[in-house]
């Protein structure tokens, strides 16, 4: 428990060192954000009723995901049966994303998601004291991706302050989308941890953003912001059927992109490891790999999060993989690790730490998404991209540290 407290202090210290405006850090906002992130962790991981609620939500999500296998079995037949050919990523995981995207589109068309986001956004605004726009976007990021969530506040993206825009970037990078969460679950990632991390990411992202780039300006946003629709005129589906079809099409694009990315990145890592091993062999280090280097770099950080030193290298490699490549590759690598290498506690900490979009490739994704929504601010993404990734990563690591503290 003590080492996890040290880890929390280290993470807050790193955020403070990255801050470009230390004198304007709002201690009330920062303290409230940290308290809320801590409270969420305690409620869902320690308090019996909270654990029951988390388990119920996890079972509910898993049940919904199981419905996707009806469609998967229909399309792929015996290929979908893992007892026949084993686990096939393209069959068992990627189609889940198509189904989840279609379901989310239907929920938005029926205004169910808008209602949920409105409640969570209003709660963040009241409890933490952050501005309405950034609070709403942080809430939307619990359920949506880093490029979809800003659509909820699209009318305000050109009007908010630079610091608020940075917060919007960070809350997107600190979170994952409901669609991608389903993909992780299909890999075998613990659903309880994923859901807990998703809810902790909202106050966590606000916490790190407000330390690194405080916003001293008053909230001038419209009080009716929470009524903003998520569809532009002309883009809104005519009915539920069109919404489901559009969502499925978007999900297919996302699944294809993830599949192509994993194929390329896993192969590139293998090639890089081969090259490093060849070069290392000249000096007596024939087993040198990219993973080993990343593990050594991030091992101390993982140690202060509560992971035993003997396992810190392996955990550090996964964090480095997530930062350099992305979290999906890191989760795939997690399940390649031989059983017994990491303790259940370490796997829990790593699961929380990996649960977010904060990686270098996400900078390009943000530039593409915001370049369309608010092109006049695209230069800010290039300027603050690395700092936003650092803030998002610190948020994920803070969730991991708090989970380690609660479960230690």
From TrEMBL:
Subcellular location: Cell membrane
All residue ranges annotated as the Concentrative nucleoside transporter N-terminal domain in the record: 6-79
Ranges for domain Concentrative nucleoside transporter C-terminal: 193-403
Membrane topology classification: Multi-pass membrane protein
Keywords from the named record: Cell membrane, Membrane, Transmembrane, Transmembrane helix
InterPro entries: C_nuclsd_transpt (IPR008276), C_nuclsd_transpt_met_bac (IPR018270), CNT_C_dom (IPR011657), CNT_N_dom (IPR002668), Gate_dom (IPR011642)
A Gene Ontology cellular-component term: plasma membrane
GO molecular function: nucleoside transmembrane transporter activity; symporter activity
Keyword Cell membrane annotated: yes
Main location: membrane
The keyword Transmembrane helix appears for this protein: yes
TM regions (residue ranges): 29-49, 61-80, 86-110, 165-187, 193-213, 262-285, 347-374, 386-407
Nucleoside transporter/FeoB GTPase Gate domain location: 91-187
Similarity section: Belongs to the concentrative nucleoside transporter (CNT) (TC 2.A.41) family.
Name assigned to this protein: Nucleoside permease NupC
Source organism of this protein record: hydrothermal vent metagenome
């Amino acid at each position: 428990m003590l080492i996890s407290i040290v880890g929390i202090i280290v993470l807050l210290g790193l955020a403070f060192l990255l801050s470009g405006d230390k004198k304007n850090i709002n201690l009330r906002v920062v303290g409230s954000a940290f308290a809320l992130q801590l409270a969420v962790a305690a409620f869902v991981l320690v308090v019996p009723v909270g654990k029951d609620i988390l388990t119920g939500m996890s079972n509910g999500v898993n049940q919904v995901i199981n419905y996707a296998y009806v469609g998967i079995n229909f399309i792929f037949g015996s290929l979908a049966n893992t007892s026949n050919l084993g686990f096939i990523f393209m069959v068992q995981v990627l189609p889940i994303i198509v189904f989840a995207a279609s379901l989310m589109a239907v929920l938005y068309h029926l205004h169910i998601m808008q209602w949920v986001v409105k409640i969570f956004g209003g709660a963040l605004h009241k409890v933490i004291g952050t501005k309405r726009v950034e609070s709403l976007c942080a809430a939307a990021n619990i359920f949506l991706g880093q490029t979809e969530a800003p659509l909820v506040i699209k009318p305000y993206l050109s009007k908010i302050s630079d610091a608020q825009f940075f917060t919007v970037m960070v809350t997107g990078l600190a979170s994952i989308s409901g669609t991608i969460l389903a993909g992780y679950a299909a890999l075998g990632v613990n659903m309880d941890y994923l859901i807990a991390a998703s809810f902790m990411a909202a106050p966590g992202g606000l916490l790190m953003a407000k330390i690194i780039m405080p916003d001293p300006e008053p909230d001038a946003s419209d009080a009716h912001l929470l009524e903003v629709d998520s569809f532009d005129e002309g883009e809104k589906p005519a009915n539920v059927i069109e919404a489901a079809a559009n969502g499925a099409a978007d999900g297919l694009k996302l699944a294809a992109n993830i599949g192509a990315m994993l194929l390329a990145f896993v192969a590139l890592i293998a090639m890089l490891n081969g090259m490093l091993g060849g070069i290392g062999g000249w000096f007596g280090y024939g087993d040198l790999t990219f993973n080993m280097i990343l593990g050594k770099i991030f091992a101390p950080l993982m140690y202060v999060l509560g992971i035993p030193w003997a396992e810190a290298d392996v955990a550090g490699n996964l964090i480095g993989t997530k930062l350099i490549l992305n979290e999906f590759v890191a989760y795939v690598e997690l399940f390649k690790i031989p059983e017994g290498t990491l303790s259940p506690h370490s796997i829990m900490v790593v699961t929380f730490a990996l649960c977010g979009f904060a990686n270098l490739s996400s900078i390009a994704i943000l530039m593409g998404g915001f370049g369309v929504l608010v092109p006049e601010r695209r230069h800010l993404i290039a300027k603050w991209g690395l700092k936003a990734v650092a803030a998002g990563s610190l948020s994920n690591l803070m969730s991991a540290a708090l989970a380690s503290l609660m479960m230690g």
